[in-house]
Amino acid sequence: MQQKSADLELVKLTKRYGDVTAVHAIDLRVAAGSYCCLLGPSGCGKTSTLRMIAGHELASDGDVLLGGRNITLLPAAERGTAMMFQSYALFPHLSVLDNVAFSLKMRGIGKAERHKRAHDLLERVAMTPYAQRKPSELSGGQQQRVALARALITEPSVLLLDEPLSALDPFLRIRMRAELKRWQHDLGFTFIHVTHSQEEAMALSDQVVVMNQGLIEQVASPHDLFNAPASEFVAKFLGGHNVIRLGDAKIALRADKVRLSRDASGDNTMAGDVLGVEYQGTYVLVTMNLPQQDDFSVMLPEADFFRAPCSPGERMFAQWNSSDVHRLAS
Predict the structure, then answer these.
(1) Quick one: which of 164, 184, 222, 316 has the most CB atoms within 10 Å?
(2) CA distances from 251 to 164, 219, 230 (A)
(3) Hey, what domains does the chain have and what are their CATH numbers?
(4) Closest C-alpha to 205, from 228, 180, 237, 227
(5) What is the pLDDT of residues 278-325, one digit of tens each?
């Protein structure tokens, strides 16, 4: 398959549904050949953004540029993008082979040629033995591979994925996550993946775009996002962070950077009561009630917790280093 990846750029892209603005004039650049995740809660505008890129929604304002070409008003089939839907949307009456080859049939490509290209893609996604089966005879993970092959047969510059792992069980989700990343690396395409799962976005992406109420809150690598969230919303949505109010300022503190003690020591110490203790395997999650702080959490390594365990109702001191604090812009 020929590698055709291209830069994608959104310029003041806006989507309105009547009086409701779902996407507010966002600007974004996604480098060719990268894996970008649009991350945020339900209703934040991430799926509307994806559908405008795909051409399944018409932008109310702004532009979509692919490889420097303005594709904002082009029909979906002429954009150089392909979309893999959450439901996979496979034709139940067609074989796996014919599902993958379907778009080539619509373009008038002969049966021998389209089947050859479909077989090549099925081999790439390890689905050749299932070429003559119907979708109902496949597992969820196998259906996803067929949907991916069908999307790739048009040789798009950008592959768009709408919550592609949400229907899978947790074990399969992790396995398919690794396969998606491998396919993106091997194919060299630009992948844009919508998800509400922080774990999924952090595991897959080169670039995470955190959205909230139709706006982009932050664009960063997973490492930079987790270590330097731009706002209180980002810190709380990512999880694993405490937001502490110090006068007029707000700081973010990773829960795994907090220590617990029965004695006060050092400058960065706050006393509170233990509310809950949850064993999570490699770590123990301790929640505390600290003065004027919401949902304060401490993630203690399993061995550290069991060397000096604490219980709900017990008074403890939370401590941290100044170097582990990140000041929030908002």
Answers:
(1) 164
(2) 34, 19, 10
(3) 8-227 (3.40.50.300), 242-327 (2.40.50.100)
(4) 180
(5) 999 999 999 999 887 778 999 999 999 999 999 999 999 999 999 999
